[in-house]
Design goal:
This protein is an alpha/beta fold and about 290 residues long. It is about 40% helix and about 20% strand. The protein has 2 domains: about 150 residues, P-loop containing nucleotide triphosphate hydrolases (Rossmann fold, 3-Layer(aba) Sandwich); about 130 residues, no CATH class. A 5-stranded parallel beta sheet has the order 2-3-1-4-5, with helices on both faces. Strands 7-8-6-9 form a 4-stranded parallel beta sheet. Helix 1 crosses helix 6 and helix 8 packs across helix 9. It is elongated, with a radius of gyration of 22 Å.
Amino acid sequence: MRFVIVTGMSGAGKSTALKMLEDVGYFCIDNLPLPLLPKLAELLKVPSAEFNKVALGIDIRGGQNFADLDETLKDISHEMLFLEAGDPVLVKRYKETRRNHPLAVHGNIWEGLERERSILSPIKRKAEYIIDTSLLLTRELKQELNKIFVDNHEYKNLYITVVSFGFKYGIPNDADLVFDVRFLPNPYYIEELRPKTGNDREIQQYVMSNGNAEEFLVKLRDMIEFLIPQYIAEGKHQLVIGIGCTGGKHRSVTLANELYRHLEKFSDYGVRIEHRDIEKDAVRKAE
């Protein structure tokens, strides 16, 4: 039997994750009061074809006390999935849904999040899987859950976002690493290439035909492959790699796509691509 505890920060996607696990055959129970957990544990000790995959969602609603959780679970084999997100993201989600944080005093969401992190920190340290949903789309979260709980891939608790951008629109605020590819020839100055983007073959061929582009890409791949294990060892769960050119349309998109395709080959962590500014020139010209 596979028994998964699903927990994490309120607003990070626990209910969504439970629904996704239910869709792939898990029997899901949400927000079971912890005093009832011993009885559930007894039931799960009995082999059953009907309940061979169980997911239990627990959180801090109702003033749950996690102090006895380890003692309750010590005699039953289980895995723990912890869903995380940055405080600004969680605050935004709460405001959009007009919900109150369960630990918010006088409606102060920031204080509620601080208290919740303090309560959940011992649980997070013991979780086998930690997924930061700050930048994830619903389908991307589903892909990560499928890797762990359906395909049984080894998971390193790291999600990488490769984002292309234009320096004239500002460096992404959440970027951990930023690389400037403005040293490469700019397709913008070739009239027939100007309307195209780094997603088009003509731009890709133009950019990558430059020897410096290929050499840069080789060194970039080598650096990222070196850094990833270091970040994982330090407990980092979200890595944002920014690649910028002037307008974020040609060179940065091409190199970001190349790096993404390389990182996508590794199945033990998640990776996504985002082209932040690819359409901004077109929008501004239309205005």
